[in-house]
Design brief:
- By secondary structure, the protein is an alpha/beta fold.
- It has 2 domains: 120 residues, Aspartate Aminotransferase, domain 1 (Alpha-Beta Complex), CATH 3.90.1150; 263 residues, Type I PLP-dependent aspartate aminotransferase-like (Major domain) (Aspartate Aminotransferase, domain 2), CATH 3.40.640.10.
- The radius of gyration is 22 Å and the shape is globular.
Length: 429
C-alpha cells in the first residue's frame, strides 16, 4: 500500500500545507464551483459521494446546447457544434478511460437503476437450481429493490433466492468470507451483483478476484459502480467483468440525475443468444432512419440503448469527463490514497475515543470515502458540521460519511474538518 510520511506533529496545519504545495493536481480545484459558507468562504465539501460539485465549464456547455436549440431547433441534430445525433459518442472514450474498458464496451444512457434492470434482463437468466442472486450487506436500497423485483419477475422468491453476503465479525467483508459464500452457493447462483464500493462502509471489493472465482463457479458477474467510477482505478475489460453500471452525478460531477454509464464486456457484443430489451437507438446507425421493421443491433454496447440521448444533461457530464481525462485516474488515485490516509491518521490521533472508522484501512480495500461510526450517536451532527462550514452525510443509525475527493479537496480541508468535528464533539459531551 502506498502511504505518506507525516510530520511528527500532525496536530498542526503545516504538514497539510506542505502536502498541498506538493500536490501536482491541486489546480483542478479551481475548475469547480463551491457552495459558500456565510456568503463568503467555501464550504469544506465532503459530500461528493452523494453529489459532485459543478464543473465551471458545465454551465457553458449546457448554455451552448440551449443556444443551439434556440437558433437551430431540429437542425441541431446535424449542424450544432456538437451534433445531437451522435452526442453520446462524445462521452464514450472518456467513460471508457475511467472504468478501464475499450470504447465499444461502453455507452452512456438512462439512469443507474434503469440500466441495472436492462442489464439484468440480459444477464440474470435463472435455470433449474441456478436461480439465486448474491448481493452484499448494506447494498444500496435501490439495488436490493431491483434484484428482489427481478427475482419475483422470474417467479422466484426473494426470501429463498436472494443471498446476502455478510460478515459476522466486522462491518466490512473480507475476501475469505466471499470465497466461502461462493464455495457454498456457487452452483445455485445465477448472478453476483455487488457494489464496487459499498455506499455505507466505503469498502472497495476486489472485483478482479470476485469475478474470477464467481465465473469459475458458473455465475454471471456484474457491479454497481455508483461509488467506484471516478473513485477507484478500474480495469473492467481486463478483469473480465460481464457487465457494470454507474451513475454520473457522484464522483463524476455530472449534476443531479446525470446520465448513467454502462459496461458490457466485448465477448457479449454482437451475439444473438443474449436477450435484451431493444429500442431504435440500438439499431444499426447506417439504416436507423430507413425505419426498417426488423431490429439490427449495433455491434457495441450501444445495442442496449433504447432512445436518443438527453443532450442537456449529457452536456454537463461531458464538461466533467473532460477534466477527468486531463487529470488521469492514475494521478487522482495516487492523491486519493494520500489524502484519505492523512484524514484517517488525524481521526485516529484526535478522535479515537469518540469515533470508530468502519472503512478498511488498506488502500486497495477503500476509495476516498471514510465512514465514521459515532460511539455516542448524535443524529444532529451533520447539521452542527454544516453550521460550521462542513458539508457531509449522515446515515442511520450512527455513521458520518465523508469523502475527500482528490479533484477538488485538499489536505487543509481534511485538517480543518477534524478540528471542527473535534470541537463539536467536545462541546456535546
Amino acid at each position: 500500500m502506498r502511504r505518506i510520511t507525516l510530520e511528527t506533529n500532525i496536530q498542526t496545519i503545516e504538514p497539510a500545507h506542505q502536502l498541498d504545495n506538493n500536490d501536482p493536481i491541486s489546480h483542478f480545484k479551481k475548475q469547480f464551483h463551491f457552495p459558500k459558507f456565510n456568503s463568503n468562504e467555501p464550504y469544506i465539501y465532503f459530500s461528493g459521494n452523494s453529489l459532485g460539485l459543478q464543473p465551471v465549464k458545465a454551465e457553458q456547455y449546457v448554455k451552448e446546447e440551449m443556444d443551439a436549440w434556440k437558433h437551430l431547433a431540429v437542425d441541431g441534430h446535424l449542424i450544432a457544434e456538437r451534433p445531437w445525433f451522435p452526442y453520446h459518442e462524445f462521452l464514450t472514450s472518456y467513460s471508457a478511460e475511467i472504468v478501464g474498458a475499450i470504447d465499444k464496451e461502453v455507452v452512456v444512457m438512462n439512469s443507474l437503476t434503469v440500466n441495472l434492470h436492462l442489464l439484468m434482463t440480459t444477464f440474470y437468466r435463472p435455470s433449474g437450481v441456478r436461480k439465486k442472486i448474491l448481493i452484499e450487506k448494506h447494498a444500496f436500497p435501490s439495488d436490493r429493490y431491483a434484484v428482489q423485483s427481478q427475482l419475483r419477475f422470474h417467479e422466484n422468491d426473494p426470501n429463498d433466492d436472494l443471498i446476502i453476503l455478510e460478515s459476522d465479525e466486522d462491518e466490512f467483508i473480507p475476501m475469505s468470507i466471499i470465497m466461502n459464500y461462493l464455495e457454498k452457493y456457487g452452483e445455485e447462483i445465477a448472478l453476483v451483483l455487488l457494489g464496487g464500493v459499498n455506499y455505507y462502509t466505503g469498502q472497495a471489493f476486489d472485483m478482479a478476484a470476485i469475478t474470477d472465482i464467481a465465473q469459475n463457479c458458473g455465475c454471471r458477474v456484474g457491479f454497481d459502480l455508483a461509488h467506484a467510477a471516478g473513485n477507484l482505478q478500474l480495469n473492467l475489460h481486463d478483469w473480465g467483468v460481464d457487465f457494470a453500471a454507474w451513475c454520473g452525478y457522484k464522483y463524476l460531477n455530472g449534476g443531479p440525475g446525470a446520465p448513467s454509464g454502462v459496461f458490457i464486456h466485448e465477448r457479449h457484443l454482437g451475439t444473438t443468444n443474449l436477450p435484451r430489451f431493444e429500442g431504435w437507438w440500438g439499431h444499426d446507425k447506417s439504416t436507423r432512419f430507413d425505419m426498417p421493421d426488423d431490429f439490427k443491433p449495433l455491434q457495441t454496447a450501444e445495442a442496449w440503448q433504447l432512445s436518443n440521448p438527453p443532450i442537456l444533461s449529457m452536456s454537463a457530464l461531458l464538461a466533467s469527463l473532460e477534466i477527468f481525462h486531463e487529470a488521469g485516474m492514475s494521478q487522482l488515485r495516487q492523491k486519493s490514497e494520500k489524502l484519505t490516509y492523512y484524514l484517517e491518521t488525524l481521526i485516529k490521533s484526535e478522535l479515537a475515543e469518540q469515533i470508530e472508522i468502519i472503512t478498511p484501512s488498506l488502500s486497495q480495500s477503500r476509495g476516498c470515502q471514510v465512514s465514521l461510526k459515532m460511539l455516542q450517536p448524535n443524529n444532529n451532527i451533520t447539521k452542527l458540521l454544516h453550521d460550521r462550514g462542513v458539508i457531509s452525510d449522515w446515515r442511520e443509525p450512527d455513521v458520518i460519511r465523508v469523502a475527500p475527493v482528490p479533484l477538488y479537496n485538499s489536505f487543509e480541508d481534511a485538517y480543518n474538518f477534524v478540528q471542527i468535528l473535534n470541537d463539536i464533539l467536545n462541546e456535546c459531551r
